[in-house]
Amino acid sequence: MFTYPEHIVQPLNDKINVFKFSPAVAYIFSLCSGISEEMIMATKIYPRTFLRFIPLYRAVHGGGAITLGSKNWQSITLTENFFSNDSDKYGRAAYANAHQSWMRLCAHEIGHIKHTQKYGWLFWYLLVFAYEYMRYGHDGSSLEAEAEQVSKEYTRFNSFVNSCISPEALQKLLEVNIDEKFKKEKILAWWQQFKNA
Questions:
Q1: Domain that holds residue 185
Q2: Cut 0.90: pTM above it
């Protein structure tokens, strides 16, 4: 049984272990990345399982995620610690309720959706990544640096909201059980303030 932050991801059409981003979260990621909300909402989110065994990061050390896709589909697979509160098993890396860990990592992965569009086919996408990783390493890859820009933009926006609106206001807005349209209107107002600051 997986545990997950319901304000960030939601089950996809009652399918077991397949999720999608909540509309308000997809909206935030769209603002931060320039990728359409529709594409982000269509991205399937999976926990790592025996059959879906990548990424290869160790969950007990914080885990990670991988984005795969083409022009027509995208998926993000997160290590199982993101779907668990079991601190006996994962220690401080049990991230099921770690809002910022989810948001920063998923924002980064959304950045890779641009690459799925750029390279079009999964084969080319993986080939370019393999080349960059072999030549420059993960942290030296220009593709990773590009994806990280989305996470940094999210972090800047969240920091602005924390300091200029109210501490944890963005997280609280996402968590409250109100209409998604209202959430998006509030997010847009804050985003405009952020961009005009």
A1: 9-196
A2: yes
